[in-house]
Specification:
With 480 residues, the chain is α+β, with helices and mostly antiparallel strands. It folds into three domains: 6-74 and 168-360, Bira Bifunctional Protein, Domain 2 (BirA Bifunctional Protein, domain 2); 86-163, Herpes Virus-1, CATH 3.30.40; 385-479, Anticodon-binding domain (Rossmann fold, 3-Layer(aba) Sandwich). 34% of the residues lie in helices and 26% in strands. It has 17 helices and 23 strands. A seven-stranded mixed sheet has the order 3-9-10-16-13-12-11. Helix 2 crosses helix 13 (350-361). The structure holds zinc ion. Residues 92, 94-95, 97, 148, 150-151, 153 line the site of zinc ion.
Length: 480
């Protein structure tokens, strides 16, 4: 479904109904940070829980870790982040606006641009931010008449690199040994704990280590609401396997994980029609990766990366082994061989999923009276509230009392059931529609005689009467 101004409508609904607020709002905000309100917190938790259920709890080969956000600075020297976690930055010399170069030129056309303007770049350059910096890029910006988004002039300074790690100090000493970083990704918390997991759990290959947690990036220009932010949450898996296993070659494992990702995305209600896989060309991949495929989503502001899948070989473990001096390998008891396992990494950003879920769920319907009904067609399993219970009229004690009985009984069984008796019934429906509550239960006068209730469906607005004795079974079926 195509909706006009979809992004504005989602942002407005998020604020109006308590999903997402600007971070530190009463102080004028802090760019690139957002706070999740009562509804947004529930939705985020439900997406996270669904991921944990699918990829950790229902599997025999997955181990969950929760590593510290602050890590020894050597971790980020080993991975190359200290030198290479960079974005290309350029400043407008007319208005001093700072831009990411890859935000003002088309990243996918970068090879073409470089070639067209007589430049050459190594494969390594093209896989990093280096391709967007230096005199050649300045020349390209000028020749292509790329204008400043603020003042519309072409007056660029020299494009240079900017490290996106958020640096901090740990402890009282002010020397270089106290430097730490708010981790730029959760993956390294997994690799650094590889030996701990192997030593304590004795897993058999292939197996995965999963982690959910916050990561931080000092984005030059945070934008597109919660899509590009400075504080984010990642859900990552490192799936370790024997690269010499001829029965299960890596290509097969890679395809398997790609399908698993897609299956789960659609299960939580992301519109499959708006999802596309994008394989990074060899020259644009990180040098250690043999294959990288993104799942892209058609966001209202363009088709962008929502999640990634990368075959990272044994790059991370070998670097950590080198820098730490520890053996980070695997001993196969059956074949009595020792080797370095390889990994496939399925990863996804929770906020990007959250936004794809909302963009997929947002729906409008023109009613007979000409008004527009807005509803969030959320998958019931991730909807913040599953059921809303209310008495038809709140000033009729019989109705209120009976509705309270229904509410208490359901609340013990389902997470969450909400009580709503404010305003008239039409307003309640509109409110619950907007926050995506799949079912509204109303206790009316007939309920008193017949011991039944009406259940209204969020998507069709149709109502059915269900006997009290069958109510919980009925709800369970519809939530499944
Ligand atoms: Zn400018």
């Amino acid at each position: 479904m195509h909706t006009e101004n979809l992004m504005e409508k989602i942002v407005s609904l998020c604020k109006r109904r308590g999903f997402v607020f600007q971070g530190s709002e009463i102080y004028g905000g802090l760019a690139g940070t957002y706070d999740y309100g009562p509804l947004g917190s529930l939705l985020k938790n439900n997406i996270r829980d669904s991921w944990l259920r699918k990829f950790v709890h229902t599997r025999m080969d997955m181990y969950l870790v929760d590593a510290a956000i602050l890590m020894n600075q050597r971790v980020w020297q080993a991975t190359g982040h200290v030198d290479e976690f960079i974005d290309p930055l350029v400043e407008c010399s007319n208005c001093q606006k700072r831009c990411r170069v890859d935000a003002i030129v088309d990243e996918k056309d970068i090879m073409g641009l470089v070639a067209r303007h007589g430049g050459s770049a190594t494969a390594e350059d093209l896989a990093s931010a280096q391709k967007f910096v230096g005199p050649l890029m300045k020349y390209i910006l000028e020749q292509e008449h790329v204008t400043c988004p603020d003042c519309k002039k072409v007056a660029w300074g020299m494009p240079r690199v900017f490290n996106m790690m958020l640096e901090t100090r740990v402890g009282a000493a002010a020397d270089s040994t106290s430097v730490s970083y708010l981790r730029p990704e959760t993956a390294q918390g997994i690799f650094v704990n590889y030996k701990n997991v192997v030593d304590t759990q004795s897993p058999k290959l292939p197996f995965g280590i999963a982690q959910v947690g916050k990561a931080f990036r000092n984005e030059i220009t945070p934008r597109d609401f919660i899509f590009r932010v400075r504080e984010l949450e990642q859900m990552e898996i490192e799936y370790f396997f024997n690269p010499d296993d001829t029965e299960k070659p890596w290509q097969e494992l890679f395809d398997y994980w790609k399908e698993e990702q897609l299956e789960w995305f659609t299960a939580i209600g992301i519109d499959a029609e708006r999802l596309h896989d994008y394989e990074h060309p060899a020259e644009a991949r990180a040098h250690y990766s043999l294959k990288t495929v993104d799942w892209e989503f058609e966001y209202p502001f363009g088709t962008k990366e929502m999640s990634g899948l990368a075959y990272r070989t044994n790059f991370d473990l070998s670097r950590h082994s080198e820098f730490s001096g520890q053996k980070l390998d695997y001993f196969d008891e059956d074949t009595k061989t020792r080797f370095a396992p390889h990994v496939i990494e399925p990863s996804v950003g929770l906020e990007r999923l959250f936004l794809a879920v909302l963009a997929s769920a947002y729906s409008e319907e023109i009613l007979e009276n000409g008004e527009t009904r807005v509803y969030l067609k959320l998958a019931p399993k991730i909807a913040p509230y599953k059921v809303c219970v209310s008495p038809l009229l709140r000033n009729k004690p019989d109705l209120v009392e009976k509705a309270k009985v229904v509410f208490q009984a359901l609340r013990d069984e389902f997470t969450y059931v909400v009580w709503d008796d404010s305003g008239n019934i039409g307003k309640r429906y509109r409110r619950q529609d907007e926050i995506g509550t799949p079912m509204c239960i109303v206790v009316d006068f007939d309920s008193l005689d017949n011991d039944d209730v009406t259940i209204r469906d969020r998507d069709t607005a149709e109502q059915v009467r269900v006997p009290m004795s069958e109510l919980s079974e009925h709800i369970r079926t519809r939530l499944a």
